[in-house]
Amino acid sequence: MKQIIVVALVTIAAASVAVGQCAKMGKMTHGNATVEAIKRLEAERNKALVAGDLAAVDRLYSDDYTSAVGNTYRTKAEVLADLKSGVLKLDASSNDETNVRVFGNTAVVTGKSTVKRHDRGAEINGQVYFTRVWVKQMARWRLVANHASSITQ
Questions:
Q1: Phi, psi dihedral angles at 64 (to 5 degrees)
Q2: Residues near 90 by Cβ (< 8 Å), separated by ≥ 6?
């Protein structure tokens, strides 16, 4: 009987440790170096888009990057071409709220952003909820996906 109780307690303890480890993997602390690096890349991305810095966008975005913002879907090549031609122009872009979760070589960033942009003849101003995915590729973090939805009042 004592063996059954001991086995049960060891099993419960092991399960508790496993659950705790899984929870830690998904939630990084605010001071984590990777979290802070991703936040800096997010700020760099916003600055590059507002400045129309094609070299920085090219460096930050993965070659297989895709974006779904509003009713527009773009690849990296299309983002670069639209920024270069002026079809896409950001006057302002800032992250108001940012939550970064790191899973190995992948970081998922969610939050709220304020944007002011001209996109295919339409002026779009206001706040959006966003989800961006960064992946560490060849020792560098690169943006692979972006989705944003307007916040309606």
A1: -100, 25
A2: 49, 50, 52, 115, 116, 117
Among the listed residues 125, 120, 132, the one whose alpha carbon sits nearest the alpha carbon of residue 153: 125
In a domain, 1, yes or no: no
Instruction: Give the Cα separation of 68 and 108 in Å (integer).
Output: 16
Q: Give the residue from 131, 78, 128, 76 showing the smallest Cα distance to 106.
A: 131
What pLDDT sits at residue 22?
44
Supply the range of the domain harboring residue 115.
30-150
Q: How far, in Å, are 1, 16, 24 from residue 12 at the CA level? A: 17, 6, 18
List, for residues 36-67, the tens digit of each pLDDT value: 999 999 999 999 999 999 999 999 999 999 99
Distance CA 34, CA 107 (A): 9
Could you tell me if 70 and 150 are in contact, meaning their C-beta atoms sit under 8 angstroms apart? yes
According to DSSP, the β-strands at 140-150 and 61-69 are parallel
The total number of structural domains that make up the chain: 1
CATH code of 122's domain: 3.10.450.50
